[in-house]
Write a structure and sequence with these properties.
This protein has three helices and four strands. By secondary structure, the chain is α+β, with helices and mostly antiparallel strands. The chain folds into two domains: 2-32, no CATH class; 55-99, no CATH class. The strands form two sheets. A two-stranded antiparallel sheet has the order 1-2. Strands 3-4 form a two-stranded antiparallel sheet.
Amino acid sequence: MTIKEQSQNGRSETERHAFVAAPANGKARVAAPAAPSPSAARKSTVAKVSHTLSVALAERLEEFAFFQRVSESAVIEYALTKFFGQGSDDAALGESLRKDGAGRRRKS
């Protein structure tokens, strides 16, 4: 069985299969269709991301954002926009980062 999520105009946007594991009697059951979420029809203009920062940098970011009355996300977005605004040559941007000591982080 397929569950179709519909946008506000009634057109199908996504399809998912919703099967539930067979119970002890061996008969498969199908889950009831889920109601489409109100946000399914809207496309978000932001993405939620999560990255690690050094404790000192995270504290500096938190303090700066608080006293300047801006969000931490706004500060990070501004910094990344400035960084990527330096040019479209990803290799050059990467080389610049590595030259200044940036590298891959490893989980401890």
